[in-house]
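does this look right to u?? iron/sulfur cluster version
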Amino acid sequence: MMPAPDQTGASPREISLYVHIPYCHYKCRYCSFYSLRGEGPDYDAYLDALAVEWRLVRDEECLDDPAVRVASVYIGGGTPSVLGSERLRRLHRILRDGPAWGEPCEVTLEVNPESVTEELIGGALAAGYNRVNVGAQSFRDDDLALLGRESSGERVRRAIADTRAAGCVNLGIDLVFGLPGMDPEKWRASLREALRFAPEHLSCYLLAPEEETILHQLLHAGRLEPPIDEAAFLQYEAARLAAGQAGYEHYEISNFCKPGFRCRHHLDIWQRRPYYGLGPSAHSYTGDARWCTTADIHDYLARLREGPLRPARQRRRLEAADHRREAILLGLRQARGLTWDEIAAVVEAEATAHVERRARFLAGTGFIEIDEQGLRLAPRAFFVAHHVFVELLEAAEKATAGRGE
Ligand code: SF4
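got this back:
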């Protein structure tokens, strides 16, 4: 949907913001995010640096243009809730200093159960955050121990109850499935517990430990039984069933919501609208380029303090092949899929027939659904989305193969 024109009659240029808070009290065994452990980081110095970076980004990316509107803000990490309510209030003020925010503007605060109190959430809501996402991961002590989280089922329950008690009316809960040795009945019990809180949003992520993580090393060394694909598939299907029966919309591979509560920030990313990331390791996308800010807190702080200069970043201009890959991959993740027009915008005219032929074949096998609007994954194929993606991308690249694009 096109944004409404502003008072000058021009359509606003909508952007999203992501702010990375790279601090955690501990390191989870499956974590590959940039996060720092340890006592006593100087959070105020970090907020000072974010304020400087935000000003530099606005200047260099021309974001103080009156046509710019901030449509969503996501404070992630790391563990943003370690900042406490006063600093969260300050962070909100820092971000408000700049382009106007849309009305409404979705402002998400990601929290870890261990640092949640009713006071903290109450303070954040009063400061202007309007969506809270609780990284529960599980309600079971044994799952949490396996994941290396210093939490417990009881702590997770209390954090969610405190978030609700503080007045949060847009609550998200994250769960993880596909753990080594995960018991199907216990997974269903975790799902029931999550749904009992009636969150507006529920994310169920498949555990996929990356190489540098402790969990990967344990699996590689044979000290943990590797998870079984069939078991993970059944857990995923159990999540689809439970969420569907509770009235949730399955709008993206890993995400479910009550009607009207899709996460705007996630949609901005999947629908390739511009977003700007602040903080070390944060990603940005402008429509024609992507970059990732240095994942080095010392470099990050030094440049902003001493220059001030924007922290080092790897910037990459997107080529036609990148647009094609991203549009197909991100489009397929969503239940709405891709329209034929969206496909035509990224696929060369000579490859269109290949894509249509492949799509008809995949529809015949039951992996996707096609109609005159476009194509989308069949619900039972969400779990194997990557295979469908590879099939369609190969067809889309047929015309360019050998041309060295
Ligand atoms: S809380 Fe999140 S960011 Fe921090 S270590 Fe655990 S998974 Fe990583």
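Residues 320-400 form a domain with the Arc Repressor Mutant, subunit A fold (CATH 1.10.10.920). idk if thats expected tbh
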